[in-house]
């Protein structure tokens, strides 16, 4: 019999499905272990070989834990809402729900594209997922519960005193009996004080408006990243280099009324919780930086142009500073261009310059502004503020290095103590509105650079702070500011509340309708509020989100159902929310739904939560560090406060898999410009168009040091190029003499490359639909007539034509080969290049493994007693593989398998006592062949839950030692001796050995050095 992976794998995948082999129980006597993968967004592109890396690792671990006797939950689902499906729907005229369904289940879309389908691709690789718990975030039976969680957030506030979320009814009770003077809550900073009598006298609408300032999800006018090209708001992590990650569209800052989540209420708990979880330090540090805790003080500067005898009319610029000790070093102030005071305080003379600057700045994202530390820009507003102590006038500027969403959106600039303030002050030095830099540090030279350290600081030129250290001056400055009622000590966080609205269609509908402009929650018993049908997925003509196109999208408060928008009377029938939730809504709690995926009444039962608690191992990409992972922790903590989640943190251990990189191929095109300026430019352009496209082989370029993979480079005009141009055109020698050629690398589809030889199939290239413009191109090849492509390691991507699909590998070599090879590529957490050439070696290993069990005539396993060497090889492998899996060093396990099989083959081992446990040890990595071998050995049932073999150290204890025997330090031969011999016994045996006698040639050594178990050396 022969190893036929396709037949074997199809057989066992069918068996697993029919027997629900990997179905986890919610009530088991076994200890629980929950392994989770970051679930995929199901795009039409499907999986490439880079995607399964983390899934294979988690599957190896899951299978191993089952072998150890755990009840393992290893689920899979789809993060199926999101912008990509909607954009594809807009482009192709298809419904997002249709394309999403086809992308998951496979089939042919309305464009005629054949889609393999994520489910089929995942099944083909042999993952041990519990598919009975599959979730899709775009299914109403799932987002019904997302809507329910939103309602819970709306009906909650954060009590700083109890340090947790509480029901909004408790806040209403306090307001009605005490007012809000003594309420210690996370709320809007502009909340006004009121008494119990005032609260009770407020109209219901006014009370609701006040409560919005306290709710954990609330409506507010917010500065957002607006992308006109996509017609939606984007999160910071959806923007790259100032443009949308999807489509590369311009993003501008804009104020809009949005739903927001008060994640800032949990800033300290999110920070402290990082100490209790087993995550990589780099991910923890990313979250710490994003949360950005700062200890300092708020300071209020009076705006001089707004001075008034009536205190309530006085305008203040509030700043947060971590260095109140430097307050006497303030020489100017900078506001964020979006700061609400800018329009109020800017003078008429400066208005045009300020307006132009604001317009320019609106085109840059917050992330871009934070990252750009080199560009210095700003404008003087013409206004001044008053220093709280010296009463000096301080010029007020705007600059885009200050962000409206961080702190107060204003900074007190102390150039002597801050590099960015120092650069700003020097850049605008001498201009009206920029005063001289003050030095407030004793014995510190700031003539060339600011002194930003807090160490060795002695304050000078600072009135009552003179002679004090950083700590002393900080404490004193805060005390004096509090006396003036112009400041106080404060802890600040960079973490901003998360904008939760998206102006797009393909997302969870909000369970919200509006009465007199105020949001009302739909009762949970009427959920889900299902996404309506629309004809257009673009915003409406008046700029409303796509749901503004829905014909049936109003709430009948009597019938408690969605009805026609034409019936809105604002009496009993009201408009529904037109925005949808962001992509992270459904992914912020999905791990809980897996615990109880078919519960119609609850998002998850208390019993299921009590059993599974949280995720023991989570594997996914590090790109989600400050998005999904932060939001998930926030929702989990909220649900714990509300009595649902049993633990504070959702994910105990997190592993970030590295990226598998693609090996791109490049062909090199020669293009031309003309080296002499001419009045008749049209004639030159016409002449250049006559020149055919020419491609030159990589090795030809390399010989002349011209290769810059993918980059533009000029080259020399040689005879070979000139001859091609002459052959194909009638251009004069004079014209050709002034041609300037340059090369550019063009990605070549791997389908037209002979991988082993890096050779371009020119005929296939010319006939490929991607390269139809080059069907008449000329190719400058090597002397042997071959065109060699250049290679470069890049991110695997369809746009780079370097994608390798797992389906192709599975079809040719089998899923077990793919699984072993991906684990063999290198450490899980490191990036590594894909090289298909290495696949055949792993495939050969599996065939060699099979030859231990059967040959062409069938099973060759015996009941012979294993030898010591057989047992040693097996138990080395048991020990190594167990340690590697526990330490997530999967690549070295594969190496050990290869060593073990080579040793057993050399030993001619076919003993059942060795080969049966070996099949179990290898089964987490290569489950299909392991199942087949287990079955051939006469076992019934699946190998998946058989106990992992126990390592016995006695089999690794050496009884003999192979000694190197040296003469005057040079090793001449080796000899195997028992380890329990004494020095005297070893010496006697060595001196009698014929090889020793021959080496000594009748002489007697001066000295015999013997270290038992290590060396034998005869000297002299």
Automatic annotation (TrEMBL):
A motif ('KMSKS' region) lies at residues 795-799. ATP binds at residue 798. It catalyses: tRNA(Leu) + L-leucine + ATP = L-leucyl-tRNA(Leu) + AMP + diphosphate. Keywords: Aminoacyl-tRNA synthetase, ATP-binding, Cytoplasm, Ligase, Nucleotide-binding, Protein biosynthesis. It is found in: Cytoplasm. Residues 871-983 form the Methionyl/Valyl/Leucyl/Isoleucyl-tRNA synthetase anticodon-binding domain. GO terms for biological process: leucyl-tRNA aminoacylation. One of its GO terms (molecular function) is ATP binding. Gene3D superfamilies: HUPs (3.40.50.620), Isoleucyl-tRNA Synthetase, Domain 1 (1.10.730.10), Valyl/Leucyl/Isoleucyl-tRNA synthetase, editing domain (3.90.740.10). Its main location: cytoplasm. This is Leucine--tRNA ligase. Belongs to the class-I aminoacyl-tRNA synthetase family. HAMAP family: Leu_tRNA_synth_B. Signal peptide: none annotated. GO terms for cellular component: cytosol. Pfam families: Anticodon_1 (PF08264), tRNA-synt_1 (PF00133), tRNA-synt_1_2 (PF13603).
């Amino acid at each position: 019999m022969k190893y036929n992976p396709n037949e074997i794998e199809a057989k066992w995948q069918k068996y697993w499905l029919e027997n629900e082999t990997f179905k986890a129980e919610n009530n088991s006597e076994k200890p629980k272990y929950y392994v989770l993968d970051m679930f995929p967004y199901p795009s039409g592109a499907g999986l490439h070989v880079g995607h399964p890396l983390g899934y294979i690792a988690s599957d190896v671990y899951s299978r191993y834990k089952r072998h150890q006797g755990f009840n393992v939950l290893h689920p899979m689902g789809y993060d199926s809402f999101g912008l990509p499906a909607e954009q594809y729907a807009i482009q192709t005229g298809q419904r997002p729900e249709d394309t999403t369904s086809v992308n998951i289940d496979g089939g042919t879309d309305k464009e005629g594209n054949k889609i393999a389908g994520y489910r089929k691709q995942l099944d083909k690789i042999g993952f041990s997922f519990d598919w009975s718990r599959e979730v899709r975030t775009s299914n109403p039976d799932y987002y019904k519960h997302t809507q329910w969680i939103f309602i819970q957030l709306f009906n909650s506030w954060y009590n700083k005193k109890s340090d947790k979320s509480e029901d909004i009814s408790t806040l209403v009770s306090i307001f009605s009996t005490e007012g809000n003077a003594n309420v210690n809550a996370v709320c809007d900073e502009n909340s006004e004080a009121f008494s119990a009598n005032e609260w009770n006298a407020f109209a219901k609408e006014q009370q609701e408006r006040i409560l919005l300032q306290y709710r954990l999800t609330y409506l507010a006018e917010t500065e957002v990243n607006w992308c006109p090209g996509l017609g939606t708001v984007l999160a910071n992590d959806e923007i790259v280099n100032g443009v949308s990650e999807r489509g590369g569209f311009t993003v501008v800052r804009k104020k809009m009324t949005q739903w927001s989540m008060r994640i800032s209420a949990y800033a300290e708990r999110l920070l402290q919780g990082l100490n209790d979880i087993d995550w990589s330090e780099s991910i923890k540090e990313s979250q710490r930086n994003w949360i950005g805790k700062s200890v300092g003080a708020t300071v209020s500067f009076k705006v001089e142009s707004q001075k008034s005898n009536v205190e309530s009319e006085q305008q203040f610029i509030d700043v947060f500073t971590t260095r109140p000790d430097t307050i006497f070093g303030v020489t100017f102030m900078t506001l964020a261009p979006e700061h609400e005071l800018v329009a109020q305080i800017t003078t008429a003379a400066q208005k045009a310059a300020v307006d132009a600057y604001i317009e320019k700045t609106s085109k840059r994202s917050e992330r871009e502004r934070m990252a750009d530390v080199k560009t210095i820009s700003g404008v003087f507003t013409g206004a001044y503020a008053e220093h709280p102590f010296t009463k000096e006038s301080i010029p007020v500027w705007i600059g885009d290095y200050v962000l409206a969403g961080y702190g107060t959106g204003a900074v007190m600039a102390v150039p002597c103590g801050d590099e960015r303030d120092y650069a700003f002050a020097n850049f605008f030095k001498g201009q009206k509105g920029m005063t001289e830099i003050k030095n407030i540090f004793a014995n510190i030279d700031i003539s060339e650079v600011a002194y930003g350290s807090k160490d060795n600081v002695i304050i000078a030129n600072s009135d009552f702070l003179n002679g004090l250290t950083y700590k002393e001056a900080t404490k004193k400055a805060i005390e004096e500011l509090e006396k003036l009622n112009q400041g106080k000590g404060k802890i600040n966080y960079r973490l901003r509340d998360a904008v939760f609205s998206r102006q797009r269609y393909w997302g969870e509908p909000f369970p919200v309708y509006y009465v007199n402009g105020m949001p009302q929650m739909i009762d949970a018993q009427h959920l889900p509020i299902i996404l309506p049908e629309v004809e257009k997925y673009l915003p409406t003509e008046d700029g409303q989100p796509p749901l503004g196109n829905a014909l049936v999208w109003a709430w009948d408060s009597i019938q408690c159902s969605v009805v026609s928008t034409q019936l809105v009377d604002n009496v009993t029938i009201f408009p529904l929310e037109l925005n949808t939730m962001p992509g992270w809504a459904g992914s912020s709690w999905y791990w809980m739904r897996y615990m109880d995926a078919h519960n119609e009444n609850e998002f998850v039962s208390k019993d299921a939560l009590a059993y599974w608690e949280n995720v023991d191992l989570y594997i996914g990409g590090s790109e989600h560090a400050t998005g999904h992972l932060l939001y998930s922790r926030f929702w989990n903590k909220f649900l714990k406060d509300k009595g649902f989640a049993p633990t504070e943190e959702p994910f105990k251990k997190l592993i970030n898999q590295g990226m598998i990189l693609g090996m791109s191929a490049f062909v090199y095109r020669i293009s031309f410009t003309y080296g002499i300026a001419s009045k008749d430019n049209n004639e030159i352009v016409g002449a250049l168009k006559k020149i055919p496209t020419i491609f030159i082989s990589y090795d030809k370029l390399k010989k002349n040091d011209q290769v810059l993979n993918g980059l533009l480079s000029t080259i020399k005009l040689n005879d070979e190029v000139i001859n091609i141009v002459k052959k194909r055109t009638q251009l004069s020698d004079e014209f050709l003499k002034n041609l300037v050629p340059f090369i550019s690398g063009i990605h070549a589809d791997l389908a037209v490359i002979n991988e082993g030889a890096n050779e371009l199939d020119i005929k296939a290239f010319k006939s490929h639909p991607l390269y139809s413009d080059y069907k008449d191109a000329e190719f400058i090849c090597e002397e042997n007539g071959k065109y060699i492509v250049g290679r470069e390691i890049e991110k695997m991507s369809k746009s780079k034509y370097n994608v390798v699909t797992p389906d192709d590998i599975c079809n040719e070599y089998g899923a077990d080969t793919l699984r072993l090879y991906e684990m063999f590529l290198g450490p899980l957490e490191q990036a590594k290049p894909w090289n298909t050439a290495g696949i055949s070696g792993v495939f050969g290993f599996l065939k060699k493994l099979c030859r231990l069990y059967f040959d062409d005539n069938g099973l060759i396993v015996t009941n012979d007693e294993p030898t010591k060497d057989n047992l040693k090889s097996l138990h080395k492998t048991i020990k190594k593989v167990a340690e590697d899996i526990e330490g997530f060093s999967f690549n070295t396990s594969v190496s050990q398998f290869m060593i073990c099989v080579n040793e057993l083959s050399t030993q001619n081992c076919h003993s059942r006592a060795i080969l049966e446990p070996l099949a179990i040890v290898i089964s987490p990595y290569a489950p299909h062949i392991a199942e087949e071998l287990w079955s051939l050995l006469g076992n019934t049932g699946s190998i998946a839950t058989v106990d992992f073999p126990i390592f016995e150290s006695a089999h690794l204890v050496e009884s003999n030692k192979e000694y190197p025997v040296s003469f005057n330090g040079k090793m001449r031969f080796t000899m195997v001796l028992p380890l329990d011999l004494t020095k005297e016994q070893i010496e006697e045996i060595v001196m009698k050995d014929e090889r020793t006698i021959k080496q000594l040639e009748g002489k007697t050594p001066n000295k015999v050095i013997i270290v038992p178990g290590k060396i034998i050396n005869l000297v002299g």
